[in-house]
Design goal:
Elements lengths: L27 H9 L9 H24 L3 H20 L1 H4 L10 H10 L13 H4 L23 H7 L4 H16 L3 H10 L16 H26 L5 H23 L13 H6 L11 H4 L7 H6 L8 H11 L14 H14 L2
Helix pairs in contact: 2-3, 2-5, 2-11, 3-11, 7-11, 8-9, 8-10
Length: about 375
């Protein structure tokens, strides 16, 4: 899941000095095992989804309230951290909304938008219709992929900029829904710009959204209207002094914390080594990252199955709660020389170091 609605253009490093990469052929044994061993894992468990959503929301907003109301600094800081982690987990479920068949989880999209999407100003249309392009076989890693940049091939300074700019996401979302959405209702030209450039959780600055049509447009308009009312209410009540400035600042700080964690996770979700060529499924898998057990911290920084991001690219239809079982089954049957194991990494520091080293070497 990418964080920013758009991002700055990041400069590539040493393109002329890099040798051409040889194409990676599909590993038929791995792809066949992945398909055959997981046929019974594709049904989402509604109880798990709803419990996770409601639990994350209760903990997140409860901790946010404590952070706002507490007069003790250390209590406010601890509560703020809890709020960031819980709301980050809840917001990460937007990734599931783009893959799950909504008929198998009646009302879940509405529930997620009510509890997370609208209050945090990331309604589901910001990701639905966007993330599926990242999984399109002929789009992954190309200029048409909204969630891909060759970060490992760029200048070293681009990595900290990539991460730190995400801290501005709550301000950007407040402006997008509280200012641009109402104004765009009065200007067709501005409306086209808002939809094309500021209506997607993407990291590719060249990506442009198409205008929504049919049922998608009706759902989009409803969610955008409700979110705009919420954003306007935050702005007006803050300016008029009805809502204490501290409450708004804590809310925005928690939102920034969520965006920062997600951007770091995005940084290590792939190796970011493709320069625009169409890739095989196996090549896409090897450019992606799993951080399986025994690592413990990914439970916090890569929740809702995101620790199995490479496996998810093999099996995008498997719900997050079944990915651990899918990983176990594949690990039990695939030979030690299978490319499956080459996408498994130990943890966050090594992955960040790998990408940072690649930028410094210009390769």
């Amino acid at each position: 899941m990418a964080t920013s609605m758009n991002t700055i253009t990041l400069e590539r490093a040493g393109a002329a000095a890099r040798p051409a990469r040889l194409p990676i052929a599909d590993d038929k044994a791995m792809l066949k095992a992945a398909a055959e061993l997981t046929r019974d894992l594709v049904k989402p468990n509604a109880g798990i989804y709803w419990a996770d959503l409601i639990g994350s929301s209760l903990v997140g907003y409860g901790a946010l309230a404590v952070a706002i109301l507490s007069g003790t600094l250390w209590v406010a800081i601890v509560a703020g951290i809890v709020a960031v982690l819980a709301l980050y987990r809840g917001m990460s479920m937007i990734h599931e909304l783009t893959h799950v068949k909504h008929a198998s989880l009646p009302g879940f999209r509405t529930g997620w938008n009510a509890l997370i999407g609208v209050p945090m100003m990331i309604p589901s249309f910001m990701y639905e219709g966007v993330h599926n392009l990242h999984h399109a076989k002929t789009r992954y890693g190309t200029a048409e992929d909204p969630e891909y940049l060759p970060l490992a091939l760029m200048k070293p300074w681009t990595l900290p900029v990539f991460i730190l700019v995400s801290a501005l996401a709550p301000i950007g979302l407040l402006i997008r829904f509280g200012v641009l959405a109402p104004l765009s209702a009065l200007s067709p030209a501005l409306r086209e710009t808002v939809i094309a450039r500021y209506s997607a959780l993407s990291i590719n600055p060249q990506f442009r959204r198409r205008m929504p049509q049919g049922d998608e447009k009706a759902r989009w308009d409803m969610l955008e209207t409700v979110t705009a009312i919420w954003a306007l209410a935050l702005i007006v009540t803050t300016v008029t002094g009805v809502l204490p400035l501290k409450a708004v600042l804590v809310f925005l700080a928690v939102g920034s914390g969520v965006a920062l964690i997600n951007q770091v996770r995005t940084l290590v979700a792939h190796l970011w080594e493709n320069e625009g060529e169409v890739m095989t499924v196996t090549a896409q898998y090897l450019d992606s990252v799993n951080v399986p057990p025994p690592a413990l911290l990914p439970v916090l920084w890569a929740p809702i199955g995101l620790r199995y991001h490479a496996l998810h690219h093999l099996l995008p239809g498997v719900p997050y709660h079944a990915l651990a079982e899918a990983h176990r089954r594949l690990s039990d049957v695939l030979e030690p020389d299978s490319p499956y194991y080459k996408a498994n990494y130990r943890g966050l520091p090594g992955l960040v170091g790998k990408i940072a080293t690649a930028t410094m070497r210009g390769r």
